[in-house]
Design brief:
This protein has 490 residues and is α/β, with parallel strands linked by helices. It folds into two domains: 87 residues, Aldehyde Dehydrogenase, Chain A, domain 2 (3-Layer(aba) Sandwich), CATH 3.40.309.10; 276 residues, Aldehyde Dehydrogenase, Chain A, domain 1. It is built from 16 helices and 21 strands. The protein has a five-stranded mixed beta sheet. Strands 18-17-16-19-20 form a five-stranded parallel beta sheet, with helices on both faces. β14 and β15 form a beta hairpin. α8 packs antiparallel against α10 and α11 packs across α16. The longest helix has 20 residues. The two termini are 31 Å apart. 35% of the residues are buried.
Length: 490
C-alpha cells in the first residue's frame, strides 16, 4: 500500500493531448462532481488552478485506501478518476465484492496460481478479465460492459454482428413509434371482457381449464380469472388463465431460483433433457395436433408437419448444447486469449401470434440450451399450444424454474418484464410496435439486453430460426487475457 501511495503521489495532471500526463480531462464535461470531504483517509492529486480554469472537466485523482463494500463510492459512479482499495479474506469474498459493483467494464486478477485465476475469472460477472496485466485490447477480441456499464460489444465477431442483419431480413426492425409510457400496461384491455352469452355445446363435453406454469408446478393465476378460447366455429376450445403482474413477478422469482443450478449443469446433461423433451413431444404429437387444429381451425395435416418441425428444432438445440463453449482467439498480444461463452441469465420471451407452437419451441429451446432460464409469455391470440407444453416439461426431468409459461393480455406482463431488474434480457417477438418501443425504453433503466423480432422471420425455416443469431442472443462472451513472454525475454 505504501508503494501505491508513493506512485500515486507522483501522478501528473495535464491537457488531454499531452502524452506525459497521467490524469487528463474527462471527455464529457457534464460529469457530476464527487464530494469526498467526508472520507477521512484519502490521497488527492489536484491540478493547478490555471489548468483547471482552462479545462473545467479536469477532476481530482483520488486514492481511497480503505473503502467499505457498502460505501456510496462503490455503489455509485464517483465522477472522478479514482483507485478504490477494499480488503477481503477469501477469493469467494473478493468475487462477491466485484460482482456487487453495478458499474464495471474489466477486472484484473493478480496471482501466480493460474488455476486460481481461471476459477476466479469464470466466477466474475464481467466481459473482460486480465490475468497479471491490464488494458490489453485487440480488435479481434470482444470488449464491453455489463450491468450499468451497458451490454454492447466492441470488437470481435459479436461487435461486428451488432452492425449486421440476416440476409433474409428486409424490413426495418426498429421504427419511431409514439408510446404513452405512463399508460402502457396500466389500461384495461377491452378484448378481455366476457361475451354476453357463451356458445352452445354438447352437454357431454368436459370443460378443459388450463393453468399457468412456473417453479415446476401448475399454478392458478393470482386473479383466479380465466377466459374462454373460442375458435371460428364459435366453439369453446379451452379456458385460458389470465396472468397479471403478480404472476410475472412470481415467475421471475422462480426463474432466478433455478438459474444457478441450470447454468452450472453439465452441457451434456442439458442436451439429454432436451432430447427427452423431444421424445416425449413426439409420442404425444397426434394429441397435440388434434387439439391445436381444433383451436386454430387449420388442417390436421398442417399441424402434423408443425409437430415434426418442433421435434426437429428440439433435436437441433439439444445437439448444440455442448458444441460451442468458447474458443482461443488469435491476437497480436503474446500469450493466450480465451473467449468463454456464458448464459445471459433470466430471459423474458414474448411469443408472436403466428406459429404459436413452433415459435414457442424455437425461442425456448434456443435459450435453455445455452444455460438460460426463461419466462415465456405465450401467444396472446392462441396460447393453447404453448400451455399444452407444460405437461411435456413436467415428465421430462426439466428442473423447476427453467421454463415458466404465462398467458393473458401481453401489455401489463410486458411492462413488468421490461422493468424487472432481475430479468437480464427481453426477447420481444410480438406484433405490437408500441410494445416493442416500450421494451427498448424500459429496459434501458436496468441496462438489460433486448431483441426485437422481425416480421420477415419464417418460423418454419431452419435458416431463420437456427444458427449464429439465436446463439449470440442466448450467450454472452467473456474474454480472459493470459499474457506471457517475460521468461525468455533475454
Amino acid at each position: 500500500m505504501n508503494i501505491m501511495k508513493t506512485k500515486f503521489s507522483s501522478l501528473r495532471c495535464g491537457p488531454p493531448n499531452e502524452k506525459t500526463a497521467d490524469v487528463v480531462p474527462f471527455l464529457n464535461p457534464g460529469t457530476r462532481p464527487f464530494s469526498y470531504s467526508h472520507i477521512s483517509e484519502k490521497l488527492v492529486v489536484s491540478a493547478s488552478k490555471e489548468l483547471k480554469a482552462k479545462f473545467p472537466s479536469l477532476k481530482d485523482a483520488l486514492l481511497l485506501p480503505k473503502v467499505e463494500p457498502s460505501s456510496p463510492v462503490v455503489l455509485d459512479s464517483v465522477g472522478n478518476p479514482a483507485v478504490l482499495v477494499s480488503q477481503f479474506r477469501t477469493a469467494r469474498e473478493a468475487v462477491s465484492l466485484v460482482n456487487c459493483i453495478p458499474q464495471k467494464v474489466s477486472v484484473s486478477i493478480w496471482t501466480e496460481r493460474l488455476a486460481a485465476a481461471l476459477e476466479v475469472a469464470a466466477s466474475l460477472k464481467v466481459v473482460t478479465c486480465f490475468v497479471n496485466g491490464q488494458n490489453l485490447y485487440d480488435p479481434a477480441a470482444e470488449f464491453g460492459g455489463i450491468g450499468q456499464s451497458g451490454t454492447g460489444y466492441t470488437g470481435g465477431q459479436r461487435g461486428l454482428s451488432e452492425l449486421l442483419k440476416p440476409s433474409w431480413q428486409k424490413r426495418q426492425v426498429s421504427q419511431k413509434t409514439v408510446v404513452n409510457y405512463e399508460a402502457f400496461g396500466n389500461r384495461a384491455d377491452p378484448s378481455r371482457v366476457l361475451p354476453d352469452a357463451f356458445p352452445s355445446r354438447d352437454s357431454t363435453s368436459i370443460d378443459h381449464t388450463l393453468k399457468l406454469y412456473y417453479g415446476g408446478q401448475q399454478k392458478r393465476p393470482e386473479s383466479n380469472t380465466s377466459h374462454p378460447l373460442i375458435n371460428s366455429k364459435n366453439e369453446v376450445v379451452a379456458y385460458i388463465p389470465e396472468a397479471g403482474k403478480k404472476d410475472v413477478r412470481n415467475a421471475v422469482e422462480a426463474a432466478t431460483a433455478g438459474l444457478k443450478g441450470w447454468s452450472t449443469r453439465d452441457p451434456h446433461n442439458r442436451a439429454q433433457i432436451l432430447y427427452y423433451i423431444a421424445e416425449n413431444l413426439s409420442q404425444r404429437s397426434s394429441e397435440f395436433a388434434s387439439r391445436c387444429s381444433k383451436a386454430t381451425e387449420e388442417p390436421l395435416e398442417t399441424w402434423h408437419i408443425v409437430m415434426e418441425q418442433c421435434v426437429q428444432r428440439l433435436f437441433y438445440w439439444a445437439a448444440a448444447c455442448d458444441k460451442d463453449a468458447g474458443k482461443v482467439q488469435a491476437t497480436t498480444t503474446k500469450g493466450v486469449v480465451l473467449q468463454l461463452h456464458e448464459p445471459v441469465g433470466v430471459i423474458g420471451i414474448v411469443c408472436p401470434d403466428s406459429d404459436p407452437l413452433l415459435s414457442f419451441v424455437s425461442l425456448t429451446a434456443a435459450a435453455i440450451a445455452s444455460g438460460n432460464v426463461v419466462v415465456v409469455l405465450a401467444s396472446e391470440k392462441c396460447p393453447l399450444p404453448a400451455l399444452l407444453m407444460y405437461q411435456v416439461f413436467e415428465t421430462s426431468d426439466l428442473p423447476a424454474g427453467v421454463v415458466n409459461i404465462l398467458s393473458g393480455s401481453h401489455e401489463p406482463m410486458v411492462r413488468t418484464l421490461a422493468e424487472h431488474h432481475d430479468v437480464h434480457a427481453v426477447w420481444y417477438h410480438g406484433p405490437s410496435r408500441e410494445a416493442a418501443a416500450f421494451v427498448e425504453e424500459a429496459s434501458a433503466q436496468s441496462m438489460k439486453q433486448t431483441w426485437i423480432g422481425c416480421a420477415d422471420r419464417k418460423w418454419e425455416s431452419d435458416a431463420h430460426c437456427t444458427g449464429w443469431e439465436f446463439k449470440h442472443r442466448a450467450t454472452s462472451v467473456k474474454t480472459v487475457w493470459l499474457p506471457s513472454g517475460d521468461i525468455f525475454a533475454n
